Amino acid sequence: MSRSMDPEQAVRDRYSRAADRVELALCCPTQYDPRYLELIPAEVLEKDYGCGDPSAYAEPGQTVLDLGSGGGKICYIASQIVGPEGRVIGVDFNDDMLAVAEKYRGEMADRLGYANVEFRKGYIQNLRRDLRAVDRRLEQHPPRTSRDLAELEAQAREQERERPLVADESVDLVVSNCVLNLVRPEEKDRLFSEIYRVLRNGGRAVISDIVADEDVPQAMRDDPELWSGCISGALRDEAFLSSFLRAGFHGVEVLSWSDDPWRTVDGIEFRSMTVSAYKGKVGPCWERHQAVIYKGPWSAVEDDDHHRYERGRRVAVCDKTFNLLRRGPYAADLIFLEPSEAVSLDQAEPFDCSRTEDRHPRELKERGYRVTGGASECCGSDAGCC
């Protein structure tokens, strides 16, 4: 990154202008469910800059966090989906964009009949620091010396510890729409770690962003117009997926991929991609005599913990893996087998998850099982099929 180009300032300036007047160069054409657009004010719709619709994956009752919430469009869509029992939090560091979003919060609550949206000022790569609290301290006690600056920083660190902007494991779904690419390269790993931190166990991140098919050269990264235009800060598509894995996510899946590039610069293609990833693979492994069978169509697949599932084989898994596979993107591809005599957790022994072994069918049956019987009434899935 060139010393002459400050990415944060470039983004602040570009999006402040975009909050004042519509800038078409900041967004890709994106389809949203028209049902949720009818209630949203025109100014919010016009000043939306994104490349996908991660809000489509929200569910009723969830707490949703939108990173880089801008004028609030995704937040106001998600608020309708999660309903009065849900909650939506938007985080952005740009005052002008936050002003657009906040301007319509009361009006949207009146239209919906409930208020479930709030906007907070912060950096998406540091979801602990409350920038409005920093602003208040600066207004009340403007620093005049280096000691004043040190005290300000100490107070900010205390706030991060005691009253984080977004608390640990407090969110069901993290979404973001064409914003992660605006974070400095050296801070991107921290960004993904923060997403992981605020999600509850079993929670999910759905991120729409611009990715590149090649690594972006330094000369393009040093261009403030390309950076603030969601171009030169883009990760290579493979590196984007790997960032989730390094942060501890599992079940990373490409939900959508734009066949045609949004822009091509010096032969490098930049396109929109939406990725889903889950939190929840940490924890102890217990032996409860469970197994899964991979249905196909591939001859074999491997999960993020390097467990290999060959088509048609009963693979022994621990209780944690068994329950993890029953959620998210895996369940439709697997058959789940539990023993006829359940093993309680307090009786379970440790399971060695570093290995992949078959589960013998006898381990799933009662001890001494020696039944010999006739045909069942139905040998298929439909009544009267035999």
The termini sit apart by 70 Å
The rough form would be described as elongated
Mean pLDDT: 88
User: What Rg, in angstroms, do the CA atoms define?
Assistant: 25 Å
Looking at CATH, which topology of the largest domain would you report? Rossmann fold
Strand fraction: 15-25%
Q: What is the CATH superfamily classification of the largest domain?
A: Vaccinia Virus protein VP39
Main beta sheet: 8 strands, mixed
Whole-number count of domains: 2
Unreliable residue stretches: 10-20, 22-26
| CATH architecture heading of the largest domain | 3-Layer(aba) Sandwich
| Count of individual helical segments | 13
What helical percentage do the residues reach?
25-40%
Structural class: alpha/beta
Q: How would you classify the quaternary structure?
A: single chain
Task: Supply the CATH class of the largest domain.
Answer: Alpha Beta
- Could you give the order of the helices and strands? HHHEHEHHEHHEHEHHHEEEEEEEEHEE
